[in-house]
Model the fold of this input.
Amino acid sequence: MKIGGKLYAGKAKSVYETDDHDKLILKFRDDTSAFDGEKIEQLARKGEVNNKFNAFIMTQLEQVGIPTHFESLYSDTESLVKRLDMIPVECVVRNISAGSLCQRLGVAEGQDLKPPIFEFFLKNDPLHDPMINEYHILSFSWATKAEIEKMKELTFKVNQVLKNLFANAGLLLVDHKLEFGRCNGEIILGDEFTPDGCRLWDAGTREKLDKDRFRQGLGGVVAAYEEVAKRLGILI
Ligand code: TMP
Ligand code: ASP
Done:
């Protein structure tokens, strides 16, 4: 497999063509962004930790029948993935109140949400990823009714699987964001699953071990990601 030209550079990852039209290389960079790209810093080792973290989670999800774009690790900071036609919406599930939910509704952080709350956001940094609902997605043809149902079904399944996986490592999965794409008529999990796109708290102390450390200037960002990776057996 040979790497070709750069197709796209996001805030924390870059995507490259390969000599196989259907496969891409995802490079996890050390760049860390928050507030839709307003705050950006380089954090040593983050690209490598997130690449390995994502590979582990995607493999776990494949094993329980969730289709993902992940194919294999390519290097310490790169993975080989399937080329998807990405759907421009973000699927968020919340098990415990935090983040924008608390700001938007004025509710306290840390409340158990039963049932979990599902939200769609439009992937659009200049507009700060506004919250949308199924009518927006249908009216603007971002996805079909069947695709919306599939994204919701898969997101709740991922939530169930990963809530248990993290619980076994003494962690609470507070919330997380997924992105999906199309490949040969199928809806497939794309993008990444890393502590950049979810909230993870220590189950005992409720210490934050995710990107909120960066957003809130708490420090120890990569050390926290490594702690989570060690508890899951990804790093030694
Ligand atoms: P929020 O509280 O900012 O709405 O985020 C909810 C979860 O989804 C949190 O774990 C962060 C993640 N998320 C992203 O990673 N990127 C995004 O653009 C959005 C809207 C959420
Ligand atoms: N993922 C978005 C960004 O990097 C939002 C956030 O994480 O705060 O800017």
